[in-house]
Amino acid sequence: MATNEVQEELIRSLLILCNNEGSLWQALQGREGVQLLISLLGLSSEQQQECAVALLGLLSHENDESKWAITAAGGIPPLVQILETGSAKAKEDSATILGNLCNHSEDIRACVESADAVPALLWLLKMEVPMGRRLLLRP
């Protein structure tokens, strides 16, 4: 799907959410929406990346199915990459998502570990990212 088509689909989904007061998961049409958001993680626009990560963060709090969908759609490696190269906001949101995923399932935790997230998270903990320590040290 072309970038413009992805953006149009996400905008349409968010309009549905705003008009119907439904859940983000429903507005994004579940797993399809997760795949669209993950496809935006690699875009060069910092703003698009931050928005996609923020929406994935909301989804990772919303329901259990979204956590599995993020994992199954290959979302963990790009989230780890964002920990290393993204903006401060994107790094913080990525760390939160990875934490939510790890807290949900041992299987997902193993996927996060196999994506070499631990060194990236430790680096984030040591760096200047203001919320990094709080995100990584919370229970």
From TrEMBL:
Record SMART domains: ARM
PROSITE patterns: ARM_REPEAT
Gene3D superfamilies attached to this UniProt entry: Leucine-rich Repeat Variant
Keyword Protease in annotation: no
GO molecular function, one term: microtubule binding
Keywords, in A-Z order: Repeat
ARM repeat coordinates: 74-116
Any single biological process term in GO: anisotropic cell growth
Cellular component, GO, one term: cellulose synthase complex
PANTHER family: PROTEIN CELLULOSE SYNTHASE INTERACTIVE 1 (PTHR46369:SF2)
Name of the molecule in the record: Protein CELLULOSE SYNTHASE INTERACTIVE 3
Source species of the chain: Sesamum radiatum
